[in-house]
Amino acid sequence: MAATKNKVNGVMTPAYWDAACEHLTRKDRVLRRLIPRFGDACLQSRGDAFVTLARSIVGQQISVKAAQSVWERFEALPRRMTPAAVLKLKVDDMRGAGLSARKVEYLVDLALHFDAGKIHVDDWVAMDDESIIAELVAIRGIGRWTAEMFLMFHLLRPDVLPLDDVGLIKGISTNYFSGEPVSRSEAREVAAGWAPWRSVATWYMWRSLEPLPVAY
């Protein structure tokens, strides 16, 4: 699916968003109520593969608010957030920004992969979701969740269902099961009705819990 460039602030937004919202509003009673609450806001891509993956690593296993706070401190360390610049940072400074020792290792390994040209950025547009996930999870610290966040927030893929995402499961629990615990199979069953726009529905599940848009 194509993405169109927002000329106001330079971010990329999905060309399919309005069609997806129309489909989901028609098919799903919960999304029919949720989607109008958030106006024109939608999924956005910053257009920088390294930054998106780095933000995903920073955000692993912590809240959206905490991740944003750590990222802002980390982002302030180099002059520009590039692989080469990250490789020049001192470990103590990165730890001082709030990063765990393991996340520091992951970010350095990510920077090394990009700096050495081991990441096939130019090929991703033509690759299917699972092929991209397979390439990304070969990098230290990038599991399926991080790869799925990348598919959604960088490549703007329309039909990603990140079942390992705590926010998605909580959103389904809150909106479809009155807050009762939800299994992966139950979440998958609810999301079957969202296809082929599961990325869009997931984004609205997040927004139902957190008013500020999630960004990577």
UniProtKB/TrEMBL annotation:
Catalytic activity: Hydrolysis of alkylated DNA, releasing 3-methyladenine, 3-methylguanine, 7-methylguanine and 7-methyladenine
Top-rank taxon: Bacteria
Alphabetized SMART domains for the sequence: ENDO3c
Keyword set, alphabetical order: DNA damage, DNA repair
Protein EC: 3.2.2.21
Pfam family, one: HhH-GPD
Domain spans labelled HhH-GPD: 58-210
EC class: hydrolase
PANTHER family: DNA-3-METHYLADENINE GLYCOSYLASE (PTHR43003)
Protein name: DNA-3-methyladenine glycosylase II
Organism: Ottowia pentelensis
